[in-house]
Automatic annotation (TrEMBL):
The protein, known as: Outer membrane protein TolC
Major subcellular site: membrane
Molecular-function GO term, any one: efflux transmembrane transporter activity
Domain of life: Bacteria
Location(s), subcellular: Cell outer membrane
GO cellular component, one term: cell outer membrane
Classification of source organism: Bacteria, Pseudomonadati, Bacteroidota, Bacteroidia, Marinilabiliales
Organism of this sequence: Saccharicrinis carchari
């Protein structure tokens, strides 16, 4: 049994150690915007000097366990933009879309080129009169403006393919973001669970000490054991969950499924307040641009089909090889003959031209309706995404507040437990409540970022 002098000396030592630990913790907090929620209530335990005297070294170990979980500064991990750039360069689906655009561009010279000229050669067997052989070459020319209309249709179709490529790129950006942020959530949950295990281990040691001193029942130790097993199982499940998430993310980047992914320690939340971006929905969206270009291409195809039904003009040149005649006029006897030729096609079978024109008109109507449907879809998705964004914003604020209140409640409960050795079950319950709010806050932050990425995809930002 210690005398009063020993107790005073011990209390003085505890006070000095506590002040030193508080200063170190404040230094960490000032250097790191992410303060650990478990520090504050442990320092308040010094109010119960007799309890601290008997458990001083144990409490010091608890504090330093918690201190080790706080980073002094955020780790600078690979930026999400770097991964987006990698996905742009490597994703096979996006590359396929660009190949489609390049292939469509090759149709422009095909559509604007003249048909091949025709060459013919004839040799008379047996010989008929003085003509021995004949050569001719002929070039057909479509009606004026036909090639231009065909080239316009091909060019507009290629531009529509490019807009589809841009939409695929923007959609890939969203997919990469939607696969990246769950990795942050998983990492955060794992860290929270590890912190929870360390704190429960410390609780178990305290409960054991109090049980040995006759200040608490054995059931407190058993309660902590149950929660420790739950936490260990949860952590193991979280570790197993990492594999499918990494595979999904890496395959979007066309990388090895086991490639390491650097995850930031914190998220910079960009809170969006105004709905100004909605104005850009119908003006710049590649989906609508692609449909508009397809509609214009159909108009050009209609013009081309109409001109295809007009006569085609042909210019040619014939050359006849002549033999000499034994009699008759000898002036041009045996001279070869050069014969310019003109030809005109007669498009009397009109059914195919009318069908081609009707096809182009129907496609114009189809693209117009698709534009209307896409506009409605974009506006609906925008409103739903905006609601999700604001909902997660409110949840983040709620969980921040609930976390702070839970910390205060846990502080009070633990202080009461230190004084009386009772209500340990309430301490554990509040600890798990705080754990739940920490996880829910991380999830809300991730869902907010995913909703923001979707909003940027919809509004082409």
């Amino acid at each position: 049994m210690k005398n009063n002098t020993d107790i005073k000396e011990t209390n003085s030592e505890v006070g000095c150690q506590k002040l030193e630990l508080e200063n170190k913790w404040l230094d960490k907090k000032n250097n790191n915007p992410i303060a650990n929620p478990y520090y504050s209530f442990f320092f308040s335990l010094s109010s119960n000097l007799s309890f601290l005297t008997s458990n001083f070294y144990l409490l010091i170990s608890i504090i330093w366990i918690l201190a080790s979980t706080v980073a002094t500064a955020p780790v600078v991990a690979q930026n999400l933009n770097d991964y987006l750039q990698t996905a742009t360069e490597n994703n096979p689906g996006l590359q396929a879309k660009y190949k489609e655009f390049e292939a469509a561009m090759q149709k422009v010279p095909q559509a604007s080129s003249l048909p091949d000229p025709t060459f013919s050669f004839g040799y008379l067997v047996p010989k008929m009169g003085s003509q021995r052989a004949e050569l001719s070459i002929n070039q057909m020319f479509p009606w004026f403006g036909t090639l231009g209309a065909q080239a316009d249709a091909a060019s507009l179709t290629a531009e529509a393919k490019y807009q589809s490529f841009l939409d695929a790129r923007n959609q890939l950006y969203f997919q990469v973001s939607a696969a990246f942020y769950p990795l942050f959530e998983l990492k955060r949950w794992q860290q929270i669970e590890r912190d929870n295990i360390e704190i429960l281990e410390a609780y178990k040691s305290i409960a054991n000490t109090k049980f040995k001193n006759g200040m608490a029942p054995m059931v407190d130790v058993l309660r902590v054991d149950i929660m420790l097993k739950d936490a260990a199982t949860n952590l193991e499940i979280l570790k197993q969950k990492e594999k499918p998430l990494l595979t999904t993310f890496n395959k979007l980047l066309n990388r090895n499924e086991n490639a390491a992914v650097e995850i930031t320690d914190s998220l910079e939340i960009e809170f969006v307040v105004n709905k100004d971006r909605k104005e850009s929905l119908l003006a710049e969206n590649p989906l609508l641009e692609a449909l508009e270009l397809k509609e214009q291409a159909s108009r050009a195809s209609e013009i081309a089909a109409q001109k295809q039904g007009l006569p085609k003009l042909g210019l040619g040149l014939g050359y006849m090889v002549m033999d000499k005649n034994s009699g008759g006029d000898m002036t041009n006897n045996g001279k070869d003959v050069l014969m310019p030729m003109v030809s005109v096609s007669i498009p009397i079978f009109r059914k195919k031209y009318r069908a081609a024109k009707k096809e182009a008109q129907l496609m114009q109507g189809s693209y117009s309706l698709q534009k209307e449907e896409t506009s409605n879809m974009l506006i609906s998705n925008y409103e739903a995404t905006w609601f999700e964004l604001q909902s997660q914003h409110h949840l983040i604020e709620l969980y921040d507040q609930q976390t702070r209140v839970s910390e205060q409640a846990l502080n009070l409960l633990f202080s009461a437990y230190g004084n009386s050795g009772k209500e340990f079950e309430e301490v554990l319950r509040m600890q798990q409540q705080l754990l739940k709010y920490e996880k829910m806050r991380a999830t809300a932050q991730v869902q907010y970022q995913i909703a923001l990425a979707k909003l940027k995809y919809i509004t082409v930002k």
